[in-house]
Amino acid sequence: MIFNFGSINVDHVYRVAEMPAPGETLVASSYQKLLGGKGINQSIAIARAGQVPVHVGAVGGDDHWTMEQVKNFGIDTSHIAQSADPTGHAVIYVDDAGENQIVIFGGANQDLKPVQIEKAFKACHGGDHWVLVQNETNLLADIVDQSKAAGFKVAYSAAPFVADTAAELIDKIDLLAVNEVEAEATARLLGVEVSEIAVPEILITKGSKGVEFHSHGERHHHPAFQVDAVDTTGAGDTFLGSFLAGHSQAAEIGQSLRYASAASALQVTRPGAAVAIPAREDVETFLKQQEA
Ligand code: RIB
Q: Among 40, 100, 194, 274, which residue's Cβ finds the most Cβ atoms within 10 Å?
């Protein structure tokens, strides 16, 4: 089982021809209100890949729209609390190249309560469980400490990068998931090269250059599938969730990297973050087309 202590956002997505310069006012060509947040995006990717993650999070108590959205994906949502704070949100610009700029407001994501950790873990008995965290919620140190005390493995997505949090967690985690920029920042923080970051497993997504996965001294690489990207928002979340769904069940690493590469390649061909994450059948069809 995978417990994902993760953010849930309302994404306000504005399409622009190009990113605004400082002091510039631009007219957006479209606006959409969509489900997002690194945490829930990762949970959806896990669910799309075939597992039922337990998502532990919080939304604003009066926010029925977001709760309705999260129920549509086959995630266990029974540990999503209602907060007195408003649901977290993100303001996202996506340009014609599919690149994005994102500003987030934490809101209810920063209002997780210690009792939620206790309640979530009470629901599971023994076995090889994984806990996934990112930098968009509070309580990370408590979640990681209690996960380790319970004998669970911890995957940490160090995004958005927060140096103090990364420094605090790095010695306790089993898998670090980063993009190239976050990998460099982590290495600088530790005063080592990226190749010397001392975690049991590290997943480094490199966009069009593919992905590297280092596991207990073994290096694996998978190239990126070439697609025409319309929106790269949530691609890293899709990769991590899709990969962890297989990896947490001891699937062959090459297979898990291949599935996750295909899922994130397809995801960037669709607009939005959560809603763009492809179903397993679509990923399998895409992989067959690649082989043909
Ligand atoms: O990784 C993409 C996500 O980052 C968006 O959905 C946004 O909500 C922010 O959390």
A: 40
Say which DSSP state 3 is in: E
CATH architecture of the domain formed by 2-291: 3-Layer(aba) Sandwich (3.40)
Torsion of CA 71, 73, 79, 84, to 10 degrees: -50
**Neighbouring-strand partners of residue 88:** 9
Q: What is the pLDDT of residues 97-153, one digit of tens each?
A: 999 999 999 999 999 999 999 999 987 766 689 999 999 999 999 999 999 999 999
291: CA distance to ligand 1 center in Å? 32
Each residue of 111-141: b (16+ CB within 10 Å) or e? bbeeebbeebbeeeeeeebbbbbbbbbebbe
Residue of 233, 5, 44, 273 whose CA lies nearest to 137:
5
Active site annotation includes 237: yes
d(CA 56, CA 204): 25
pLDDT for the residue 125: 66
Q: What is the pTM of this model?
A: 0.97
DSSP one-letter code for 91? E
**What is the whole-number distance in angstroms between the Cα of residue 83 and the centre of ligand 1?**
20
130, 107, 104: which is closest to 5 by C-alpha? Answer: 130
- What are the two backbone dihedrals, phi and then psi, of residue 159, each rounded to the nearest 5 degrees? -135, 140
Domain residue spans of the chain: 2-291
Ligand 1 atom at minimal distance to the Cα of residue 88? 8
pLDDT in tens, 42-63: 999 999 999 999 999 999 999 9
φ, ψ at 137 (rounded to 5°)? -125, 170
